[in-house]
Amino acid sequence: MATKRRVGPSAWILGGAGVAIGVIAAWLVSQGNPGNMGLCIACFLRDTAGFFIGPAANMGAVAYIRPEIVGLMLGATLAALATKEFRPRGGSATAVRFLLGFVFMVAALVFLGCTVRAWLRLGGGDLNALWGILGIVAGVSVGVLALRRGFDLGRAGSVPRAMGWIAPLVAVVLLVLSVVTALSGPPNGFTVTTANALATGDDPPAVFVKGADGAPADVVKPAGGTVGAHGSIIASDGSVAASAASVAAAKPQPGGKRAPLLISLAAGLAIGVIAQRSRFCSVGGIRDALLVKRFDLLFGVLGLLLGAFVANVALGQFHLGFEGQPIAHTDALGNFAAMAVAGLAAVLLGGCPFRQVIMSAEGDADAFAAVVGMVAGAVASHYFGIASTAKGLSSLGWPALAAGAALLVVIAFARRGQTA
Amino acid sequence: MELDVRGLSCPIPLMRTKKALEADPDQLTVLADSGTAKTNVVNLLKDSGYVVEVAEEPGGYRISARRG
What we know:
The complex is a heterodimer of chains A (420) and B (68).
Chain A: H1 10-30, H2 41-53, H3 67-82, E1 89-90, H4 94-111, H5 115-123, H6 128-148, E2 157-158, H7 161-164, H8 166-184, E3 198-199, E4 207-210, E5 216-221, E6 226-227, E7 233-234, E8 240-242, H9 244-248, E9 251-252, H10 261-278, H11 284-291, H12 298-314, H13 332-349, H14 353-361, H15 365-383, H16 397-414
Antiparallel strand pairs in A: 1-2, 3-4, 3-9, 4-5, 6-7, 7-8
Chain B: E1 2-4, H1 12-21, E2 27-32, H2 35-47, E3 50-57, E4 60-67
Parallel strand pairs in B: 1-2
Antiparallel strand pairs in B: 2-4, 3-4
Helix pairs in contact in B: 1-2
């Protein structure tokens, strides 16, 4: 062959898409999203699950339908319809994909972010994410080994048209629930974390909202609680629910930090269109570089990092270091291992969680099964207390990672030669 | 030579096409059914020095490549 390129013109498209997504994500943080969480598929699916499950799975602090997810799905569906790429398909090891999504989510919530947020965290100066990214490379390497040995989940085929419309329909239902909730509060039985709520470190935590003067104004929890002298929180029975010192040290609840609904929705729509057209993937770049020596996709995550970095610096949100990073912990080995498990799960799925959401919106019922698996993984993580906190891994963090890794290795090396 | 990568997850369409190119064929036809697989395969073929045409079919895309 006369000419051979390893970086083609599509590298510019992917790099540009990455920059755009990184900039939009950083901007969403300036509009109210949690730190370095302008876009996080794991966190946002988890928060969305929290809206439905709420305190029943210890998800009261992470309960909010993230409009970014709704926008992503609708944007991708519209882009796919406009380019005739909407194609109902499915039937490729659907149950295995559910499991892979489940394991991905459990691991992501040990790291505290998905494979997209890992890059966004680094772009915000969170150096703990470096361990996570090294972990992604390690996990992807194992996945590449499995692919070389013939790993294959089998062919998908056409499915009844209605199957392909499940994900877009879910997005529309979520949109309606979002708007209803924004206008008149959550319908009965659903939970939304109070906007800008802070939680103390007490057990159970006291939850409150600050007034304009910075002092606690409204007490959300305990119910009927009041603000006492010197800024403590007093329960309705007169006991101290949280001391003034603990109130002063209270941290924002992730679900309560959010950009305005329309901004999140518009940003999600834009990212959905960009992602559907560019095929941006947060693990595919590393995978293709290692597996087939093609580097176009890698420009996507490099662009993401660059866009987030530049925008964060411009917006005054860049804070370099390991300590005190937003929604992050400093357990290097935990960060590495969690993202290694997540990276392997993503390769076995054929793309990162972000891609799974986009593909589900293009009519891919298997990708939707992976998304449902992620939601189930999020609920399980919070119900059983597996998810990490800013303090570090929970006691179940390591056992869950070990179990997830074992399951992935079995899937990776047992499923071979499914297709001719 | 004809290669059917319909229904396969990423990156298998790319791997299969790359493997087919090892034989250095004068022409190659790849059947794909997702926009992503189509784009990835077309990019690989173009980057490998082939002239590529894509035709839409009921079941997806017929990607025809001949040496440029």
